[in-house]
Design goal:
This protein has 596 residues and is α+β, with helices and mostly antiparallel strands. The protein has 15 helices and 24 strands. The strands form five sheets. Strands 1, 2, 7, 8, 9, 10, 16 and 17 form an eight-stranded mixed beta sheet that branches. An eight-stranded mixed beta sheet has the order 5-4-12-13-14-11-15-18.
Length: 596
């Protein structure tokens, strides 16, 4: 082929949040990389907006969390989910708030969330997030983030990965040691023989992004999500989510908004031909604001599906984000899962590029992240269809005369003893949706115990809350390092702030001379970095680290997940630490539980 040729360590196909996060993490690990993105700029639609505390921890690791907080919602403005019958209208049932639920770490949840992470949840739409991530990536890798360039072909051999890139100046070849495909599953994965397994598209979602002043009709300032739910005149149940999209205000004064319209994909199901006039008419109807002055900014649609890639690795190529898993947006697990993919993969690629890891470490990416995605797909599907289940709390039924459903709706909102009972029943149904809005275990409690790059010690996992709410911190291998405030050189610091890019972290209790000596020796022998933190045996340090009873030392991987923990007494620090690092670097099989 004609054109220029470039070589880099890692080629990243896709310049969305997952690809850009991967680039930043690799750059901070000293790994040269190139990002190619076929679009000419960032997302035009707001798209994903909720950033859970685990994602914010990852952003915090490269100094980005404070920028997200400054640009997005305050904690107060995402502290609840609120159900309205409508914003306008003159019927007795109109303009009613009939349910509120603490959400995303707000209200009475605050102490629970603060006890498990130093980072609160964030809310910044992808439209505003992507340009900021791009700026960071461009600063880290000047000239390495290239938009308006499409990957036409990706092949590989024993020497590396070879890509043909098409841009304004014509075709170009990029050779790399490895490639990360974060293109949303558009084409590269399929060209590699990867198949997406699961449910084909079953619903069609349309996002209407509009500008309007709704402050007169919205009655509170605490919600990231406002659900409009009522029975229409034809007896059908209406539900839509209304989300403020800022960018200056994040309360009822939000300048822009999004509502999502979801319709089934089925034989005979009508398709709406969306244009600005249709979208405006729908807004006015669903909100019951017939004279609403609104400007339609954009209309976007996508097929809702539930699919998981059968492989995350094809030789030197790795899939991440929507290229590997796609599901309904409920619980906000899409973008957040993709950022988790990037975080798990980046340090492993860096170790492979540097030559300090065995190939088994790269295999562990799929072994660790694919089960997490499978669980997230299940959870997103469950919480999506639970919206349908909660609607039965109104007492409405499909296929019955409209009068029946309208009567049930009015009776539930009536100011009578019967109405109070019906409304209380409805609210009990709606509270089950806390599995979406309070899913702390789903967001933080996933683990890599069976993934291959941790030392299994035979210990049982903490009991899982079926509703996904309760999250028990633990130093069990494979789990996220527990959050705690500890004393370091007289200062109060978060355990996650002790992590350094690309370095293992060894936490141990004083006296720790044998562990310190072993870490120093093994860092030189294995050509890796090991940060050691010896914490005082007091309530101000080691005693505050949860989930480590009877543990003398905890080895944490660069991604903040525990690789190994040593029981108190009877272990030779150098021997057990060497064996643990060999496993964590993918250089050998998992040792027997007795090694711990």
């Amino acid at each position: 082929m004609t054109g220029t040729q470039q070589r880099t360590s890692v080629l990243i196909v896709g310049g969305g949040p997952v690809g850009l996060t991967t680039s930043i993490l690799l750059a901070d690990l000293g790994v040269e990389n190139v990002v190619v993105e076929r679009r000419d700029g960032s997302s035009k639609l707001p798209k994903a907006h909720y950033l859970n505390s685990r994602t914010m921890e990852i952003f915090g690791a490269f100094g980005f969390a404070d920028e997200v907080y400054a640009a997005g919602s305050s904690a107060e403005h995402i502290s609840q989910t609120t159900w309205y019958t409508s914003l306008g209208g003159d019927d007795p049932t109109d303009r009613r708030i009939f349910m509120q639920l603490d959400a995303f770490g707000g209200g009475e949840l605050a102490a629970l969330y603060e006890g498990t992470s130093a980072y609160r949840s964030g809310n910044l739409p992808q439209k505003h997030l992507e340009p900021r991530l791009r700026a960071v990536a461009e600063q880290r890798t000047p000239g390495g983030v290239r938009f308006s360039q499409e990957c036409l072909e990706l092949t590989q051999d024993e020497d590396g990965v070879h890509a043909v890139i098409e841009g304004a100046s014509g075709p170009e070849r990029i050779d790399a040691q490895y490639a990360v495909v974060a293109d949303g599953g558009r084409s590269i994965g399929a060209s590699l023989g990867v198949s997406l397994q699961g449910l084909p598209p079953f619903m069609r979602a349309t996002a209407i992004h509009f500008k309007a002043d709704l402050s007169v009709w919205i009655q509170e300032d605490t919600s990231m999500l406002r659900l409009i739910q009522r029975v229409a005149e034809d007896g059908t149940m209406l539900e839509t989510g209304l989300v403020g999209m800022g960018p200056e205000h994040w309360d009822r004064r939000s300048e822009t908004w999004v509502i999502n319209v979801v319709a089934p994909i089925a034989p005979g199901a009508p398709e709406i031909d969306w244009d600005n006039a249709t979208a405006l008419a729908h807004l006015r109807d669903i909100l019951k604001l017939p004279e609403l002055d609104a400007e339609i900014i954009s209309i976007g649609g996508w097929a809702v599906e539930s699919v998981l890639a059968d492989r995350y690795r094809v030789g030197r190529v790795f899939l991440a984000g929507d290229a590997a898993h796609r599901h309904p947006p409920t619980t906000g697990l899409g973008l957040n899962s993709g950022v988790g993919d990037a975080h798990n993969l980046a340090w492993k690629l860096a170790a492979a590029v540097r030559g300090t890891a065995g190939d088994g470490l790269l295999d562990s990416y799929e072994a660790e992240r694919r089960p997490v995605a499978a669980r997230n797909i299940e959870w997103a599907m469950l919480t999506a269809f639970n919206h349908v289940a909660t609607q039965s709390g109104w007492g409405v039924l499909p296929g019955v005369p409209p009068e029946h459903n309208l009567m049930m709706y009015a009776a539930t909102l009536a100011d009578t003893p019967d109405g109070a009972t019906r409304l209380a029943r409805l609210c009990e149904f709606l509270r089950t949706q806390r599995m979406e809005y309070q899913a702390r275990h789903i967001e933080l409690g996933y683990d890599y115990y069976a993934g291959g790059a941790v030392v299994q010690d035979g210990s049982p996992a903490p009991e899982r809350d079926p509703f996904g709410l309760e999250y028990e911190q633990t130093t069990r291998p494979g789990h996220r390092l527990p959050h705690a405030w500890v004393t370091r050189a007289g200062d109060r610091v978060d355990t996650h702030s002790l992590l350094r890019p690309g370095a293992f972290l060894l936490l141990c209790a004083e006296p720790a001379s044998s562990w310190i000596d072993a870490a120093r020796e093994l860092a030189e022998e294995l050509d890796i970095e090991i940060a050691v933190e010896a914490l005082e045996r007091s309530e101000q340090a080691w005693g505050r680290l949860p989930g480590h009873d009877g543990v003398e030392a905890v080895l944490v991987r660069p991604d903040g997940h525990v690789a190994y923990r040593a029981s108190s007494g009877g272990v030779e620090a150098a021997d057990v630490l060497r064996e643990a690092l060999v496993v964590a670097l993918g250089r050998a099989g998992n040792p027997a539980p007795s090694a711990a």
